[in-house]
Amino acid sequence: MSATYTTKKILVKRSYQFLALILIILAGGLLIIPKQQKHEGITPQLFVKNMLSTERYITTDILADRMVNQDPVLLLIDTRTTEEFEKYSLPNAINIPLSQILNEELNPYLNQDIYDVILFSTDNFTADEAWLIGNRMGYERLYVLEGGLNAWFKTIIEPELPKEIMSREAFELYSFRKAAGKYFGVANDTLEIEPEIKKKAPPKKVVTKPKKKKKMPEGGC
Amino acid sequence: MKELEKTRRISISAVLFLLVIIISLLTFKKPEFNFVNSSEKTLTYVANQSHILSLIDFKKMDAADYLLIDVRSNFDYSKGHLENSLNIPKSQLLDPESTSIIQEAVSNNKPMIVYGENPETANAACMLLYQLGYEQLKLLSILSFYDNKQFQIRSFDVEKPLFDFAQTMKEASIQPIKKITVKTKPKPVKKKVITKPKKKKKMPEGGC
Question: How far is CA B68 from the centre of its chain?
Fold first, then answer.
């Protein structure tokens, strides 16, 4: 009895050793596995999927509307150089030049999920590059202003007067853009003055009335 | 008996242990694509805009020296494209066929030049390829479009301001002052006209 008991004891001991050995081997294996997928951010497949989607683009009209309504979750980021930013930028925009977007101090503006970050540049080239880097890193709530500042000036600051044959929507959009432009510092435009010039016409009609007056006293006499 | 139970428990756990290992090994797949270049490296690649190739420089190059990739859709490509260009739509960049074409160019040490409808869309493809580890990459900064059913290209400078922003803004804010002065002038004229009808009322009264 005692003999079998001791062999069993040895077996138990050995199986412990065996298990420990497997664990050590597996732990060694763990060191090898992560090397194969060592890259930060999302997978290339997801990168392509996000890249093809145009959801990231926000038009100047929508942005103007949100700015006028003082959307609290809106955060504007200018990806141009500091010099360009100092000359002119959109109101309340923060300057993060493209080369600085992974800078530890400035990065938290992009890597967050509280604000809707709108990236913009002169056109949307640099902003798009910033977006693509952000996409790779898996940042959410990043958007790109479609057409950038060029489009902003074309549509909001100096909107083109729609032609008469164009739809009512085109005119509504135009008046919205004009109103938004006023909010951003462009004051009264030529269109509003034109009707006032037309108002000069009524006095001419009044002038004809005095002629009647002349006839009246003549008849009285 | 206690010891026997112990061994049984150990053998069961060992079997479960091995099962988990086998299953995980079977389901383990090596990812097909990996980003080779880090975000920092990609950023320095794009930030100084050295990857942008202008149309003038492109025309100086010999067609045998590069692989020209058109990243527009198959349909757009079939309608018209640049000479010697190869079509790899943006959505198919990770397809095995595309990768074999790209790999071949890399093994021949040929630089790749990417173009699309506009530099923005081509740049997305360009940045993807760069991050996948293809570093001999250039972006052709052109607009491609159809005019009179003809495929045409035009040189396009990225990030070129169409307005002098600060100046335009200044002018836009000055404008109203000029116009307000115009507005104030017609108003007194109107007031004078209004006073005249009052005289009219008096006149007929006196006549009667």
Answer: 19
Give the tens place of pLDDT for each residue, B60-77.
888 888 889 999 999 989
> In angstroms, what CA-CA distances link A99 with A32, A80, A131, A169?
34, 9, 13, 41
Which residue of chain B is at minimal alpha-carbon distance from A218? Answer: B207
Rounded to two decimals, the pTM is 0.72
pLDDT tens for B116-130 read: 998 888 999 999 999
Residue-averaged pLDDT of chain A: 81
Is residue A125 packed enough to be buried (19+ CB in 10 Å), middle (13-18) or exposed (0-12)? buried
Restricting to B residues 63-122, those with a Cβ less than 8 Å away from any Cβ of A are: 90-91, 93-94, 119-120
Tokens representing A144 are 């790109």
Of A18, A43, A157, the CB nearest to B168: A157
Phi, psi of B171 (to 5 degrees): -60, -40
Give B-chain residues touching A213 at CB under 8 angstroms.
199-200, 203
Integer Cα distance of B37 and A38 in angstroms: 11
Regarding an ipTM greater than 0.85, the answer is no
Instruction: Please choose, from the candidates A123, A163, A170, A114, the residue with its C-alpha nearest in 3D space to the C-alpha of residue A142.
Output: A114
Quick one: residue B161, left, alpha or beta (phi over 0 = left, psi -120 to 50 = alpha)?
beta
